[in-house]
């Protein structure tokens, strides 16, 4: 009898919205992207046909659910689901949906009556399509991990951002733009060796994307302040918080967030704000029209590559972060 030799094969695919990031991940893994051949019919429907056999392979499909190059959040989501389905029907051994930015993550609960919980619906769709595992970075809330009935690796961009912010000096305060992010800000403050403060705010009932900032809790006078958040969308929250810090005597204010979504008036708001720098990562694609002088974009490709390698060889993902992605 011939001795059977097990040869695991990894296939890495890129969605249409994250081709640049996926290429950087492939470089980190010293491999190449497998052609996914994703295209749109004239009717707007998405189609794909993998360029190689994936039978018995470990398949990783990278896509962020964000608007890019005329394609919507829903185009990205549907495209990734179609690629997962294609991999399942092509007899892939294991399929991991790598979602640097998880769409609909803010719809994770019923804030008011007659609302959906769309973050759960998205997880259900990936399960129905055939995904065995999800990998994402800085989910808006930890409970989303429980929406998917399978392993969910919740990574964090904190090592990338902290490494970039460590040169700020000794007179630094990490500030949470609201009370809900205080725990995250505490982790950053501990890593950077800074003081912590937070902005107490009140959200206007029934009005989306609008808040009313109130007061700063903590000593920030004369300090270089770093506002930490998981994402910057319309930038209303972060710019209002920055102005409040400036009014209360901050020496300078920097914004640092994982996901630079930058919707609607965000770019104009950030340009005209008191912020001296805006630091984000490449979890969301950044087209030229969204770039501006204050913006610095860091890459999470090494974090994603390390996680993909850990999943592929069946080793611990949380070990990459020393367990701090769950603390």
Order of strands across the main sheet: 10-9-8-11-12-13-14
Mean pLDDT: 93
Helices and strands, in order, run as EHEEEHEHEEHEHEEEHEHEEH
Q: Mind describing the biggest β-sheet? A: 7 strands, mixed
- Record field, number of beta strands: 14
Radius of gyration, taken over Cα atoms and rounded to an integer in Å: 21 Å
Domains (count): 2
Instruction: Briefly note the structural class of the backbone.
Output: alpha/beta
The assigned CATH architecture of the largest domain is 3-Layer(aba) Sandwich
Task: Give the termini distance in whole angstroms.
Answer: 50 Å
Strand content: 15-25%
Q: How many helices?
A: 8
Give the CATH class of the largest domain.
Alpha Beta
Low-pLDDT parts are 1-6
Could you tell me the CATH topology label of the largest domain: Rossmann fold
Helix content: 25-40%
The shape, in one word, is globular
């Amino acid at each position: 009898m011939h001795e059977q030799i097990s040869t695991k094969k990894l296939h890495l695919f890129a969605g249409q919205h994250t081709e640049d990031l996926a290429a950087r991940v492939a470089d980190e893994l010293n491999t190449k992207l497998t052609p996914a051949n994703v295209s749109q019919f004239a009717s707007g429907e998405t189609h794909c046909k993998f360029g190689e056999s994936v039978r018995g392979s470990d398949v990783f499909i990278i896509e962020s659910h964000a608007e890019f190059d005329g394609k919507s959040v829903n185009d990205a989501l549907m495209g990734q689901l179609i690629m997962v389905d294609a991999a399942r029907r092509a007899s892939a051994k294991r399929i991991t949906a790598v979602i640097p930015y998880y769409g609909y993550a803010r719809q994770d609960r019923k804030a008011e009556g007659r609302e959906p919980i769309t973050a759960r619906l998205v997880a259900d769709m990936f399960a129905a399509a055939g995904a065995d595992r999800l990998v994402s970075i800085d989910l808006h809330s930890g409970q989303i991990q429980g929406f998917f009935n399978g392993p969910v690796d919740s990574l964090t961009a904190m090592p990338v951002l902290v490494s970039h912010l460590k040169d700020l000096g000794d007179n630094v305060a990490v500030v949470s733009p609201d009370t809900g992010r205080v725990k995250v800000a505490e982790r950053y403050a501990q890593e950077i060796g800074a003081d912590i403060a937070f902005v107490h705010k009140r959200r206007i009932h029934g009005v989306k994307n609008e808040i009313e900032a109130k007061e700063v809790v903590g000593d920030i006078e004369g300090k270089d302040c770093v506002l930490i958040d998981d994402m910057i969308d319309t930038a209303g929250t972060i710019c209002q918080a920055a102005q409040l810090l400036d009014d209360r005597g901050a020496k300078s204010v920097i914004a640092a967030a994982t996901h630079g979504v930058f919707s609607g008036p965000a770019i104009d708001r950030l340009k005209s704000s008191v912020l001296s720098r805006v630091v984000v990562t490449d979890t969301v694609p950044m087209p030229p029209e969204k770039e501006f002088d204050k913006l610095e974009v860091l890459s999470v490709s090494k974090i994603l590559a390390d996680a993909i390698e850990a999943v592929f060889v069946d080793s611990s993902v949380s070990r990459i972060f020393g367990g701090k992605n769950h603390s």
